[in-house]
Amino acid sequence: MSAVTALSSDRAAEIPSVDRWATLVAHDVGPVGGMERQMARLATGLLDADWHVVVVARRCELPAHPRLHVVRVRGPRKPFAVAYPWFLVAGSLALSRHRRGVVHAMGAIVLNRVDIATVHFCHRAAHGTAAARRVARPGVFRQLSAVLVEPLKLTGERLLSRADRLVASSRGVARELAEHWGAAAVQVIPNGVDVATITPSREHRARTRAEWGLGDDDLVALFLGGDWKRKGLEACVEAVCAASRWHLVVVGPGDPNPYRADAIRHGALERVHFVGTTDDLPGAYAAADVFVLPSAYESSPLALYEAASAGLPLIVTRFNGAEDIVDDGVTGWFVERDGRDIGQRLEQLRDAPSTRNAMAERARAAALPFDWESIVNSYADLYESAVATSAAEAA
Fold first, then answer.
1. Contact 346/162 with Cβ under 8 angstroms?
2. DSSP summary character for residue 193
3. Which residues, 6+ apart, have CB-to-CB distance to 280 below 8 Å?
4. DSSP 8-state code for residue 369
5. Integer distance in angstroms from the first to the last C-alpha of the chain?
6. If residue 89 lies in a helix (H) or strand (E), which one and from where to where?
7. Which whole-number Å values give the CA distances from 286 to 156, 197, 203, 321, 344, in the listed order?
8. What is the full DSSP assignment across 262-327?
9. Per-residue burial over 202-219, b = 16 or more CB atoms within 10 Å of its CB, e = otherwise
10. Could you list the mean pLDDT of each consecutive 10-residue stretch along the chain, which spans 395 residues?
11. What is the DSSP string of 131-156?
């Protein structure tokens, strides 16, 4: 069976050659996962703006559209040590056959020359940080996989030099690309947020809290995402165990058992809730009172922008992207990766609803410039520039 399957209603060879075409290359495109949702929303925005879009991906969960053409690259999703090189080869072959117009890749995932590569995570910058390693559970196989994964990621990043233009998802990532890879003239286009979709309602808040077994008066700190070790879940559990009246809700994939053990040891198991992954992220934001993310390394986490858009005070460490939206003491606080520090901030907000409300309003205002219309327009302008440059070089 071929590793590449065209899913569009038109055969790729019959796709006409026109200027307003973009080929998006990603491992996965869909509603779950930060980068996956970003690429899905970008594709939808381009289609709405009358672009024709080719998607080359393992999985693409976008509604059918007459200007959307999907090329599926069949292959494994896990483990990374197998999935990444597989897509590197199979995705490159698929792209060489089906590319049309401007080619935009989500990171260093193909061998081909691309017009634009968006960088969400600088592995060289995160390399060597113990908390940045993605081994969620012990075991010989997982440890061996981790040993193989880091060199693969660092080697893959060298492919970024093949891109004509680099886009960083935050100013911090742009600085890291310059420092670690000598990349110059990196354009910053941040993650986008569906502000209208994330807007919370009282009904949504009450419904989600009922599903979680929480009452109207409970104070809820929201932790959202996977890779819990790097993102600092241990410090969040410690903080909530020490902060009276606060509950911690953990949304995302992971093994809760070690963290439940910590909560049991502190006698606070009933205030730490693991709800797994959810398709109802707006409900998760609506049900919370504050957002916590004491991560060791981030590039520009989508959850941070969404939490601000939902009007949640932000309690985070100084990772990339945070500087673009967190105003210390105004929209939230910068904290150390320490449960006591986080707990102190939670206690400050416990009996201060006016402070929570003021921070919530300012956080939402800070998120407004990141609406998806402006982000899509920024990429569309970049595509137009790439088309113009190609035309000038061909003339």
1. no
2. B
3. 208
4. G
5. 42
6. helix 80-98
7. 38, 11, 9, 22, 23
8. HHHHTT-GGGEEEEE--S-HHHHHHH-SEEEE--S--S--HHHHHHHHTT--EEE-S-TTGGGT--
9. eebbeebbeebebeeebb
10. 42 51 96 85 94 97 96 92 93 97 94 92 70 48 59 76 87 89 87 83 94 95 94 96 94 95 92 94 95 92 93 96 93 96 96 94 94 91 88 71
11. GG----S--HHHHHHHHHHHHHHHHH
Residues 6+ apart with CB under 8 A from 79: 145
Q: Which two tokens stand for residue 215?
A: 């009452």
CB 84 within 8 A of CB 5: no
Q: How far is CA 270 from CA 61, 109, 339, 349, in A?
A: 37, 43, 18, 21
In terms of C-beta density within 10 A (0-12 exposed, 13-18 middle, 19 or more buried), how is residue 191 classed?
Answer: buried
Phi, psi (deg, nearest 5) at residue 49: -95, 15
Domains defined for the chain, CATH in brackets = 4-192+372-389 (3.40.50.2000), 195-369 (3.40.50.2000)
Q: Do the Cβ atoms of 198 and 306 come closer than 8 Å?
A: yes
Check: CB of residue 53 under 8 Å from CB of residue 24: yes
What distance in Å separates the CA atoms of residue 373 and residue 42, rounded to the nearest whole number? 9
* pTM, rounded to two decimals: 0.80
pLDDT in the model for residue 9: 36
Residues 6+ apart with CB under 8 A from 7: 60, 70, 71, 72
Which strands make up the sheet holding 332-334, listed edge to edge? 272-276, 246-251, 219-224, 290-293, 314-316, 332-334
Question: Token pair 């995402």 is at which residue?
Answer: 225
- Determine the residue type at 357: N
